[in-house]
Amino acid sequence: MAGIVVLSNTLLDSYVGLSIEDICPLKFGKVGDEHNHCAHFVSHVLSLNDSLHLGQTCAGMIWKGRQHGAAAGCIRVNDIFNACEDLEGPDDGGCLVYYTTRGNMHKDGTMGSHRQKHVGICYNSNVYNYGNTKDRVRKDKVGGLAHLYGAKTITLYTGFPDGAKALTLAEIKALY
Asked: Which domain, by its residues, includes 39?
């Protein structure tokens, strides 16, 4: 069963232009680092933390992180995808959207760990996602990332995981 998440343009637009350094209260991730922060961003906004047991979080990546599991965010796209129910297309109330290649999908419908995978929050005909090239949250039109990995790109949608809830930046920071 999908989680109940209340989104708004105001909430999501408030993240546009922010870096992961601005968002992560545990300070995992730096502008220009080698990490892909799309799942990390989505997870902080939706409070996909250690309590949901989705997979590796930013808390496990820093020395004092285990003491602050509620402030953590899941950092792997496939861990999020594999914990959610598939949707046929975008949901008007919001959902998650993924971009990967068909070769990254297993026969059982789960997503693999291949490097070519990306996640964003789809809401009101837009995709809010972390662009690693410029290290900032972006707002793209639905369909605007359909060729992210070339002609082999596939787009998938899921609901939100149980326990997800939308947080403001102030609420994220207050968790630490």
From this structure: 9-174
